[in-house]
Amino acid sequence: MSRSRGRRGELPPSQETIEKLEKMVDACNFYEAQQMYKSLSARYAASEKHAEALDILQSGALIQLKHGQITCGAELAVLFVETLVKGKYSYNEETLGSLYMMLTLFNLDRVRKMYEGFPNIPIPEHLDDDDDMQKLSEALVAAKVRVEGCLSFLRAAIKWSSEFGAPKTGSPQLHNMLAEYLYSESPEVDMTKVSSHFVRGSDPEKFASVIVNFMGKCYPGEDDMAIARAVMLYLSQGNLRDANNLMDELNKQLEHKQLELPDSDLIQFIKYLLQALERDSFPLFKILRQKYKTSIDRESLFDGLLDEIAEKFYGIRRSGLPDIFGDLLRVSIAISG
Question: Which family does it belong to (predicted)?
Fold first, then answer.
């Protein structure tokens, strides 16, 4: 029967192909299996069998990741997203209850499963000798490979979602995933990049927990900067609700740990800023910028964000100013990791 199918040029059922390739991976023939995953999924896609190609690529990505083949798994995960694009699979959260919506959720669930397949491996601590330093060096290299692989996949997924039904900045759920992975897995955490994705996400509570965790291990003076940056990034999008939600959640989580917000002029400025925006008071906004200029100048990003906040809330824009947040997000997606 298979010979007859081969003569006709027909493709076997995708499950048959998946089982065959999984056996190759289980036998540690990783490279050979990888080439087969790529070539066979391409044949299914070329025959307009995009659903079957997706099944093969998802299975391949997950089993390669399970075997620690991060580069292979990431490559197949990116090909999975490219096949979503070729097959014009939509991302749409509006049409609840319809088959169209179920397909959309299924696609997002598949992306989430592949994201969860990327390993989380702690970097060793308490190093005493040369062997330990060698282990640390190897762990850092491995961490960089994991992060780069996962980020290439999630960046592609965000781009797909932005073009096929999600908000123009990409799926909030995917931004949540990217922010969490950047924070938990990057050998050197860049909180600006982490924050730029969290504020495009949909989980201020999780964002608050990450900031609280960061406060417990950052250098002195970085804690209030992280909080101020997060709040102003939300506000630069006109999102006063989540900026307030973040502050409320930070207070709640810190109180639970019997801690408090940093006692600094910058945090005082943020509290007053939120009040000024609630009152829709531009004169108070201007006074605050002048009064707390020294604190604002601690990070070059802040002044530009405040210009964007003035435009969003008061319709006032200095001519020729760049879109600070948009530029930050584009750079973060392009070079994260």
Answer: Belongs to the GET4 family.
